[in-house]
Amino acid sequence: MTSPQLEVLLQTIIAGLLLGGLYALIGIGMTLIMGVMKIINLAHGELMMVAMYIAYVLYSSFHIDPYLSVFLAAPVLFLLGVLLQKYLITPVLRVDAIIPENQVILTVGIGMVLSNVAAIIFSSDYRSTPVDYSTKAWYLTDIWKGSPIELSLSMPWSVSFVFAVLITVALWFFLAKTDLGKSIRATAQDKDAATLMGVNVGFMRIVSFGLGSSLVGAAGCLFIPIYYLYPDLGGQFTLIAFVITILGGLGSTVGAIVGGLILGVFESLTATYIGMGWAPVGRFVIFVLALIFIPGGILSLFKRRR
Amino acid sequence: MLEIKNINVFYGDVQVIRDISFKVNEGEIVALVGANGAGKSTTLKTISGLVKPESGEIIFNGTHLAKVEPYRLIEHGIVHVPEGRRLFVDMSVEENLDMGSLKGAAKAEREKTREMVYKLFPRLLERKKQLGGTLSGGEQQMLAIGRGLMSKPKLMMFDEPSLGLAPILVREIFSILGNIREEGTTVLIVEQNVKQTLSISDRAYVLENGRVVIEGTGADLLNDEHVKKAYLGV
Known about the structure:
The complex is a heterodimer. By secondary structure, chain A is an all-alpha fold. Chain A has twelve helices and two strands, in the order H-H-H-H-E-H-E-H-H-H-H-H-H-H. A two-stranded antiparallel ribbon of chain A has the order 1-2. By secondary structure, chain B is of the alpha/beta class. Chain B has a domain at about 1-75 and about 155-160 and about 185-235: P-loop containing nucleotide triphosphate hydrolases (Rossmann fold). Chain B contains ten helices and ten strands. Chain B has helices at about 40-50, 95-100, 105-110, 110-120, 120-125, 135-150, 165-180, 195-200, 220, 225-230, and strands at about 1-10, 15-25, 30-35, 55-60, 65, 80, 155-160, 185-190, 205-210, 210-215. In chain B, the strands form two sheets. Chain B has a six-stranded mixed beta sheet with strand order 6-7-8-3-9-10, with helices on both faces. A four-stranded antiparallel beta sheet of chain B has the order 2-1-4-5, covered by helices on one side. Chain B is globular, with a radius of gyration of 17 Å. The chains are: A mainly alpha, B alpha/beta.
């Protein structure tokens, strides 16, 4: 392999990992909701779209940096998630319906409403936050003069990635070390046993939906400096979150991280070596392969059988 | 302490509990015995609030449990060690124990109670970082009991604690139930292992087809002709 070819490959993998970090954050939000609720939240991408519009408005009206708006949009999305769960999804859970998955269908409806409301308010124009660091990058030869190859690291991508890692670590700490976090995990594993231990399962569902929404909301704020925004963008990210959750094994946080990184790298490789437009195709190839060959998710390959 | 008055429970159109009444006095070991499907587990689930009775009353220390949210029962001092252990399989032994002490005094005394549980079950201390799902059957039952003890209960309800365990472990579990009572916790136990259960019980009720058919002291029931014929095989 000649050195330009190696450069392209390494650069592609780096880009894929950075993208994968953000995908992981989206996937973790989805997997958290799935673990506790046992439903797929098909409004996940639309919730991210809402957070992106929040970041966009904060930037265009008040010139607040999108990275700062994480701290505003995430709580707002938490609240939105709580309200959706409490007033729309919980009542549907109580009803005996002809189709058992009616809550999933409800989330589809929520997603449609959100994207149409966005279209009414903001029109379907493409928006972005043209921050001045959007094209800045660090170069390997600046740090290591004698480097035989040249690699670059985009500044906004890297900052977004670091944010995503920090949020993931904070979430891990919350789930592993606090009683509330443990109660959420317990609810996901066995809700009746959790009830017997004094866990208010209904409350955990509300908290989980809020948390999942705020995670994907944070991801939205991290995406907007490097992406553009339009009302229908949600569907695409719902599908991405869905693929990650399948790849990672339903309801597994670590699986979502691994799944996100794999998907990011795979899409990046497809975009470089096959063509930009083929990335979504690559995504679905991986999705179908995962469903056929590793239905239990990536981690099931390493887990020993019980 | 606990009084069950004329409860009726349905699963859909099928009545599984028919007008059952019984009581548990403080400091007793009371058993509900009977065959598979007699309604024993359902009775416990009804007390825990996992199943709602069609009619009847459940009163614990003067409180009507129908008015208590199921997840708050543990704060009233009732803990249910469910059938099949129902551990949190992807959580460590220590985390499983933490789950038993989420509220009030139990939370404040978590460290102390945990020491006590580890003393009672040294195996759990050895495996405290291991995931609940990777333990052996006996260890899982110990963990389920330990998790219940973490709530510092006044009344502990056990559903088939001997299920699937080797005879030597069954004896160990039963002797631990005795210890628990000696420590001041009242015990209500549901079992298919009739002989051993009756021998440790102060009083027992025999359930058949959702009804209480015989009641009496453990010793009385061990000598009862019907019990002998139907459950003890003598």
